[in-house]
Design brief:
Blueprint: E1 2-4, E2 7-8, E3 10-13, E4 19-22, E5 25-27, H1 32-42, E6 49-50, H2 51-59, H3 67-82, E7 89-92, E8 95-98, E9 107-108, H4 109-125, H5 129-141, H6 154-180, H7 184-197, H8 202-214, H9 218-235, H10 242-252, H11 291-302, E10 310-315, H12 322-332, E11 341-345, H13 356-366, H14 378-389, E12 395-401, H15 404-407, E13 418-423, E14 434-437, H16 443-454, H17 456-460, H18 463-472, H19 477-489, H20 495-503, H21 515-528, H22 532-541, E15 549-550, H23 551-558, H24 562-574, E16 579-582, E17 585-587, H25 590-603, H26 608-632, H27 655-664, H28 666-675, H29 682-691, H30 694-698, H31 702-719, H32 722-738, H33 742-759, H34 762-778, H35 782-799, H36 802-818, H37 822-839, H38 842-858, H39 862-878, H40 882-898, H41 902-915, H42 921-938, H43 942-959, H44 964-970, H45 973-976
Parallel strand pairs: 3-9, 10-13, 10-14, 11-12, 12-13
Antiparallel strand pairs: 1-2, 3-4, 4-5, 6-8, 7-8, 15-17, 16-17
Length: 977
């Protein structure tokens, strides 16, 4: 940092090697004894150290004969090294001190750490745990290895011990904050490594026990206590301290106070995002009427400040204004819920209502819970949701619910909180709910709403016509809003013109009077007023499945350019028939989508235009996915074996943009594939799923990817399309292999091979044997595996598929490894990796590095294995491949274990368990647990190791896997003793 023209601040470090800089320029700090003198002066905070004190600090009880002369020499050399800042080293009263020069303070890492620690303590006292953790992270980041590294002498030894202890204390405080913030799953891996490095530090053991318990690993938590008690007895002859024993008892009793605490975050623990959620949609500026309901609901919500949870459920037909009223009331009641407001559209009126487990995941993230701390099951998520809300005052607006069963897991269940629900179904089976049946508006309210949108001047002069308009709308708020918006947008229209348009009953439909048909009639009013181009867009876009649709995809559906499409869609947004989900993205309300499809079936001429619109969308996704695939897998021949497309796709600037598109569009891509089940679209759907198979590796979309393939496989069988059927089998092979369901995967691969041969599909005929080889090797059928992989290798080479050839070589390397041909395995992996490098296949390069690292590990070339795996891990993370990220951490754990670094091995194994959560299947989890147990056993944590092995063994036995035999051997008394 510059302190003025030509003057830069002196910087010193002691929380690592003792060093000095002027600005960014390093200064020569001299010999170890000279640096020891510098450290002794720096750590006195500007106070003078006498010559005898410094002699004692540097040499202790055995100083050299000329100690004082040596001391003066060191001081003189330090002044020379400081150059223009030599005055910082002050000589007074027969001693020395280092002090600021010209009022410019010294820049010492130790002082910064003290400042950060003090600020963290204040932030924690003020309840800002996230800020406190952030400050402690800054303090701990200042350590650079061993403090006062390389310095001898009693003073350096004493200070080094003090600084090490201080660092551990700061780390313990940071872990306390981690647990208070709900980051228990993330804390486990680092705490495991720290307890290994400091086995007698009981506070670290306590924190590890609590982190494991909150992560659902109770048996391991108890095993940590057992290991600690044995270690303390063996090493020190003492029992664990009272707090550790008390924690063990509380875990045994499942003390609810040990559960993850309710935290009122000021910031998300993982970053700067807002943690008091403010998710309510904007209230409409022209909200009108409903005064009695507003008061009734407001009073009900206000009771949440007492000793009960307030639950109110609004019921009524579609378009009656349930959501508008609920949002308005929720905004008015915000002061009663200072800890946040949650909102979700439960999509209860559509074919695919939101799953409560997914909604809870979103709510927990909004409340600051890290992904790794969110359990998988519905009951566990619901319990954690209630725990997080305990002691807080939060309002949850659950919009468009299907029924009471969908809502129950989402209720806060805590005093001070409230839930406001809207639904078409009357929730008489929702215990304790305050039920409100919302009817249409009164004529006065309806006219007032119409007037606020259109303008008082236009309505006052045509009051009778205005009453006719709202009457024709059936006093339904949504219908009034649509009609009024159309009139407001057309300044040349009079109210009478609008009234005449709506006066024809053929345009309003008798169904406007009751039930779901009332919703259809309301939408009909808006639809019939659309211009022809608007109406066509409204009909055709409703045919596309998916949560929403991008502007580019919509342009494909409509066969228009993007600019004209955007103008058209924005005009539909103005009529409220379409919603703008985000810039460049659009969506229908579920009921509006159903109505749009009904209009398409009724009005689209010729009818083939409907099929053509969906076909264009499929072509757009297929062509775009092909460009993404080409960037991800250069040299792969899948694109040459695809069905042709008649509509172009997007062009990506780089691989990162392509991947971003893939994961952003995952829901839309899979929805489009699923609806493409007709005989003339099945093959393109199969190609789309092959191109997007990275979704199977990401974790988030793996289940949906499998479900879509399974559904389309059935459709292909019924259509008698062997080509499509083979490719769906191939995709199912891939996703089921990743999840460890090898028998199922092999059946799919076997079917794919037979069908591929029957229809002469070179892509299937090469990849199916490759997959069968992978499966056979995993099942220890090594001869079969080698045969399949050699068959695949020949097929890939015949097809000119260089990338797939590299993959087969790496897979064959695994077979050679498992049959003891280590040198040949290395050669094969290196050959495959060389091909990936020549192709520039970054994503697949990581797979080649992974394969080579396995061979290096077995050859005990451990440093080379670590280098390959570390590079691969960075690529997998960048590519969002959670499965391979987890597997690479697992392999790093194996390498570290072989290198006799069990603490680091345990850390990687814990990271692998976190990454593989929800993907990879039980078999891989059990395998990782086995390795984690080995690492823990090497660290002396035999109790926790045994728990890991017992869980692994139970899993292998349930799966009928022979891998359980090796785990059983680990559990023998001679091993676990």
């Amino acid at each position: 940092m510059d302190d003025g023209p030509g003057r830069e601040r002196l910087r010193f470090t002691v929380l690592g090697p003792v060093r000095a800089w002027r600005g960014a320029t390093p200064l020569a700090a001299g010999s170890p004894q000279q640096r020891a003198l510098l450290a002794a002066l720096l750590l006195r905070g500007g106070r003078t150290a006498t010559a005898p004190e410094l002699v004692d600090a540097l040499w202790g009880d055995e100083p050299p004969h000329a100690a004082l002369a040596a001391l003066r020499t060191y001081a003189s050399r330090l002044r020379k090294a400081l150059g223009e800042d030599a005055d910082a080293l002050v000589s007074e009263s027969g001693g020395y001190a280092i002090r600021p020069v010209d009022g410019r303070p010294l820049d010492l890492d130790h002082d910064h750490a003290e400042q950060y620690a003090a600020e963290a303590e204040k932030a924690r006292a003020a309840g800002d745990r996230s800020r406190a953790r952030e400050l402690l992270d800054k303090a701990l980041a200042l350590w650079d290895g061993e403090p006062l590294a390389g310095l001898a002498g009693p003073y350096a030894d004493t200070q080094r011990t003090r600084l090490d202890e201080w660092r551990l204390s700061l780390m313990e405080t940071r872990f306390e904050l981690e647990l208070e913030l709900g980051c228990h799953a993330e804390a486990v891996s680092e705490l495991t490594a720290l307890t290994a490095a400091h086995p007698l530090r009981e506070r670290l053991r306590e924190l590890l026990m609590l982190a494991l318990y909150r992560s659902g690993r109770q048996a391991e938590a108890l095993a940590v206590y057992t290991d600690t008690r044995r270690l303390l007895s063996d090493e020190l002859g003492v029992d664990p301290r009272a707090s550790l024993s008390d924690l063990q008892q509380r875990i045994l009793q499942a003390d609810p106070d040990l559960d993850a605490p309710a935290v009122s975050f000021d910031k998300d623990p993982a970053g700067p995002a807002v943690v008091r959620p403010q998710q309510l949609p904007a209230t409409v500026a022209d909200f009108t009427g409903r005064a009695a309901f507003v008061t009734e609901l407001g009073d009900q919500l206000a009771t949440a400040e007492g000793s009960v949870m307030a639950v109110s459920a609004l019921t009524g037909i579609g378009g009656v204004g349930k959501t508008t009223l609920a949002v308005h009331v929720a905004h008015a009641a915000r002061d009663h819920f200072p800890d946040g407001q949650l909102y979700v559209d439960l999509q209860g009126a559509g074919h695919n209502p939101s799953e409560p487990v997914a909604v809870l995941g979103a709510f927990l993230r909004a409340l600051g819970t890290p992904d790794a701390s969110i359990p998988d099951g519905l009951e566990e998520r619901s319990a954690l949701f209630r725990s997080v809300l305990a002691g807080r005052r939060v309002l949850a607006l659950l919009d468009n619910a299907r029924d009471a069963s969908q809502v129950r897991p989402l209720l806060p269940g805590t005093e001070g909180c409230a839930a406001l629900i809207t639904s078409r179904a009357r929730m008489i089976d929702l215990a304790g709910a305050h039920l409100i049946d919302l009817d249409v508006m009164s004529p006065e309210e309806a006219l007032a709403l119409f007037t606020r949108i259109v303008g008082e001047e236009r309505v006052t002069s045509e009051r009778q016509a205005a009453m006719a308009v709202v009457g024709a709308c059936g006093f339904l708020p949504l219908a009034i809003r649509i009609a009024a918006s159309r009139l407001a947008a057309r300044r040349t229209w009079t109210v009478s013109i609008l009234a005449r348009k709506l006066g024809d009953e053929r345009r309003r439909l008798d169904e406007l009077r009751a039930g779901d048909l009332a919703v259809k009639a309301t939408f009909e009013l808006g639809y019939k007023q659309l211009e022809p181009a608007q109406a066509r867009a409204f009909r055709l876009l409703g045919l596309a499945d998916g949560p929403d649709i991008s502007l580019a995809a919509a342009a494909a559906v409509l066969d228009m350019d993007a600019e004209d499409t955007e103008e058209l869609l924005e005009s539909l947004v103005d009529t409220s028939l379409l919603e703008s989900a985000a810039p460049g993205r659009y969506r229908y309300h579920d009921l509006v989508r159903l109505y749009a499809r009904a209009c398409a079936e009724r009005d689209e001429h010729p009818p083939s235009e409907r099929d053509m619109a969906v076909s264009r969308l499929l072509d757009f996704y297929l062509a775009t996915a092909a460009r993404m695939y080409a960037l991800e897998r250069p040299g792969d021949r899948l694109i040459d074996h695809m069905e042709s497309t008649n509509y172009p796709g997007l062009v990506f600037a780089d691989r990162a943009a392509a991947l971003e598109w893939l994961f952003n569009e995952a829901g839309c891509l899979l929805a489009c594939a699923r609806q493409s089940s007709s005989p003339d679209t099945l093959r393109r759907a199969a190609d789309l799923l092959q191109l997007t198979k990275d979704l199977a590796e990401s974790g988030a979309d793996a289940l949906q990817y499998e479900q879509v393939n399974a559904a389309l496989l059935t459709a292909a069988r019924e259509a008698g399309d062997q080509h499509a059927e083979a490719r769906f089998h191939l995709a199912l092979t891939y996703v089921r292999t990743l999840s460890g369901r090898l028998d199922e995967a092999d059946e799919n691969a076997k079917s794919a091979m037979l069908l591929g041969l029957a229809c002469e599909d070179p892509y299937v005929c090469s990849f199916a044997p490759n997959d069968r080889g992978i499966i056979a090797n995993a099942q220890h059928r090594h001869a079969d595996a080698e045969g399949y992989l050699r068959q695949a290798l020949t097929a890939f080479r015949d097809d000119g598929n260089r990338q797939a050839e590299a993959s087969a070589l790496c897979n064959l390397s695994r077979v050679y490894l498992d049959t003891g041909r280590v040198d040949s395995a290395i050669d094969l992996a290196e050959e495959g990796l060389s091909i990936y490098r020549r192709l520039g296949a970054k994503r697949r390069l990581a797979n080649g590095m992974y394969a080579l690292a396995l061979a290096y590990t077995q050859a005990m070339r451990l440093e080379e294995a670590t280098e390959q795996l570390t590079a691969a891990l960075a690529i997998f993370k960048d590519s969002r491949q959670r499965f391979w990220e987890g597997m690479t951490n697992f392999r790093l754990a194996e390498v570290e274990l072989a290198a006799r670094r069990p603490a680091t091995a345990a850390n990687h194994a814990e990271q692998a368990l976190t990454a593989l959560r929800g993907i990879g299947g039980d078999s891989w989890r059990a395998t990782v647990l086995t390795t984690l147990g080995r690492a823990l056993h090497a660290l002396g944590q035999t109790g926790r190791a045994r728990v890991c092995w017992q869980e692994a063994l139970a899993t292998f036995e349930r799966l009928g896997s022979s891998d359980g035999t090796a785990v059983q051997a680990l559990l023998s008394p001679t091993v676990v003793a």
